[in-house]
Structure formats: C-alpha cells, structure tokens
Design goal:
The chain is of the alpha+beta class and 387 residues long. It contains eleven helices and ten strands. The strands form three sheets. Strands 1-4-5-8 form a four-stranded mixed β-sheet. A four-stranded antiparallel β-sheet has the order 2-3-7-6, covered by helices on one side. It has a two-stranded antiparallel ribbon with strand order 9-10. The radius of gyration is 21 Å and the shape is globular.
Length: 387
C-alpha cells in the first residue's frame, strides 16, 4: 500500500496552500464579520484551476484526480471554511453532475463557465418542507404542449451560493405521485424571467458563503437544459451527493487541522504554574486524541477519494466510503475545535483569535450534504442490506 502523493497532487496542494495562506487567511475574519461574498478570490481560484480540479482541461478545469481535490480543499478550508464551501459546491455539486450526465453542449456551456471562475454554480435540492427527506419535494416542472420547454414553479431553500449563482442544477417533480422516480434534473440560468432570490440567510458559520431561498414562478426552462433523462433526477442527486460528501469531509479536515495546529502552538507558548500548558498531562491527553482523530479522518477521506477514482473506471458506487469519511471527518472537526477552545481558555472564546470561527464553521459539516444521522443510516443500510 502506497501512502505517498504523486508530483501533480503535491503541486496542486502547494498551489492551494500558498494562495490560501497569502490571500485567504489574512482576510478570513473580515469576510466572516461582514458576510460579504469573496468574489475576487473565487474568480482568481477559478483561474488557478481550483474551481474545477477534476474537470478535464477541454472544459476549463485542471484535469486532476479526486485525491488532488481533497488535498486542495483541505488547504483552502484551513484558511477559511467559507471559501472552501463555495469551492466544494462548484467542484462537487455543480460540475460533477453535469460532467457525469450532461450533453457535450451542456459541458461546454455550463461546466467551462464555472470551472474557470467566470461564473458561480449552485445546487438546488432542499425545499422548505424537506431536508433529509429529499424526495418529498413540491417544485414542479411541466412540459409545454409544444415540447420546447418546461414550466417550473416552486421554492428551494438553503441554496449555497444562491445569491450570486449564475447557473444552478435544480431538481423538480416532472411525474407526480411516484415519489423519487418522478424527479428530474435541470440546468437553470438565473438571469431568465421567472427566477427570484430570497434574502441572504444570517448563519452561525461559513458566513461569507452566501445562502438563500430561491423561487420559480412560471420559469421556462428549455428542454435542452434537462440534465440526463426524465425521471433520473433523484438518482443524479444522490450520486452527486456521494462526491459532495468527500468535499465536505475534506473541508472538515481543513478546519480541524487549523484548530489542531493553533492548539499545538498555544500549548508550547502559553504558560501556567511556571511551565508551558503542553507539559500538563491533561493537555497532552487532549492533543494525543486530537492527532489520532485527525489522522484517522484523513485516511478515511483519502480512501473515499481513491475509491471514487477507481470505481469511475467501472461505473460503480463509492457512497459507503464517502459517508464514512464525511461522518468521521465532520464529527472530528467538531470535537477538535471544541477541545481547542477548551485548551485556549478565555482566549479561545474571543474573536481576537480564530478558534471561535473554526468552532462555528465546523458545525455545518455535520449538517449539510447529509446530516450525521443520515450518514449513519446510509452506512448501516449498506452494511446490513436492509432498508
């Protein structure tokens, strides 16, 4: 078993780390406080290939592998989770679905624009009445009598990058009454009539990652913007979420690593009772557990990325590995940031240090793209074969 990274993987990791530390980290607290969307940084990340790491070069991406994506995501998230959220949606939820199920024209038009940073993408599955119960959707898409377009009506909620997205992958009911089998996927141009954005949501964390509700009122979507076949939407959505969970696991790892490294420095520098607090057994116990959890989550995430890469050759699934990585990495991020604040004491609770931001940002990794409870359900069903 080879645990080393190849030159391309190390290169994208280095590029992402340098940009994250020089351009993102210095302004992360400012963007967190203002909630402003970091558009200039995102556009530059697109030009560097970070918005389409696994996207082939002919569609404007870096043409790299899933492990490269994990390594780059970790570096960006370690500087600021909000930037990594935008990066994750563009890479995993938007580009991945169109690359897998889209036509050549759709890839050229929509993937290229997002991968290069020219535009921002989003993914619209959740509705006000449905979170984990994703198939319980009310948004309807009805084909016109002449067959040229679908008329879409309905609302979607908690849409990451919704306030700024130019293109959105949308899931809507085309055949009511048959549950998930009646869901279809569409590519939406938000500049067309009938698309409306709600207010930007005030969030606990990842505050520079804009989120809002969106509404469709007699929106006309051309039939050529149907993604895949009619009735394939829910299958597309779940497959895309498998890839997305690897991205969120990577994000959680970046947050956890930043908190861990800050704690190591603090434990060496901060003195109490005449010695560094890192010399106390209680602190050492926490640090040892933090390191073990961090490395275990890292290995699960890399395994999920490797499995995704391997099954791409056969068309298989990697959902179990992705759910395990996402579950462990997100709960590790929450645990490590909690312990990091405890070790920092009062300073950890202060906005003068980034620990409280890491703590707030970590929480969302246990919720979006499938809660920890949903991940446990997915894993258990895969293991038992029972539904």
């Amino acid at each position: 078993m080879d645990f080393s990274f190849n030159d391309d993987q190390l290169s994208i990791q280095s590029i992402a780390r340098e940009f994250a530390q020089k351009r993102i980290a210095p302004v992360a607290a400012q963007f967190d406080a203002s909630g402003e969307f970091p558009l200039d940084n995102i556009r530059e990340m697109g030009q560097m290939g970070l918005m389409g790491i696994e996207v082939p070069s002919e569609y404007g991406g870096a043409g790299m592998d899933p492990i490269s994506y994990v390594l780059a995501m970790i570096e960006v998230a370690a500087a600021d989770a909000a930037h990594s959220t935008i990066m994750s949606v563009n890479n995993s939820l938007f580009c991945n679905g169109i690359l897998t199920h889209g036509t050549e024209a759709q890839k050229q038009t929509y993937v290229k624009a997002i991968a290069t940073g020219e535009a921002i993408g989003a993914y619209a599955l959740t509705e006000p009445q449905s979170g984990s119960d994703a198939s319980n959707m009310h948004t309807r898409a009805v084909k016109s009598e002449d067959g040229t377009h679908f008329v879409i009506n309905g609302k979607k909620s908690w849409i990451t990058s919704g306030p700024v997205a130019k293109y959105i992958v949308l899931f809507a009911i085309t055949k009511p009454g048959i549950g998930a089998k009646g869901v279809s996927a569409f590519i939406i141009d938000t500049e067309k009539e009938g698309f409306h954005r709600g207010k930007t949501e005030p969030k606990l964390g990842i505050r520079a990652s804009a989120t809002c509700e969106i509404e469709f009122v007699d929106y006309k979507c051309p039939v050529e913007n149907l993604l895949g076949e009619e009735g394939q939407g829910f299958k597309i959505a779940m497959g895309v979420l498998d890839a997305g969970r690897i991205g969120i696991a990577s994000q959680a790892l970046g947050i956890a690593r930043a908190a861990y490294e800050a704690t190591l420095d603090w434990s060496r520098e901060r003195k109490a009772f005449g010695q560094p607090i890192g010399a106390f057994q209680m602190t050492q116990s926490k640090i040892a557990d933090m390191k073990c959890k961090l490395d275990a989550a890292m290995l699960l995430t890399l395994r999920a990325a490797w499995t995704k890469q391997e099954v791409a050759k056969t068309g298989g699934r990697f959902g179990n590995e992705a759910s395990m990585a996402k579950l462990v990495a997100s709960e590790t991020a929450m645990w490590i940031t909690h312990q990091a604040i405890q070790i920092h004491g009062g300073m950890g609770y202060s906005k003068e240090m980034p620990l409280e931001r890491y703590f707030r940002d970590a929480k969302i990794t246990e919720i979006y793209e499938g809660t920890s409870e949903i991940q446990r359900m997915v894993i258990a069903r895969n293991e038992t074969g029972l539904r």
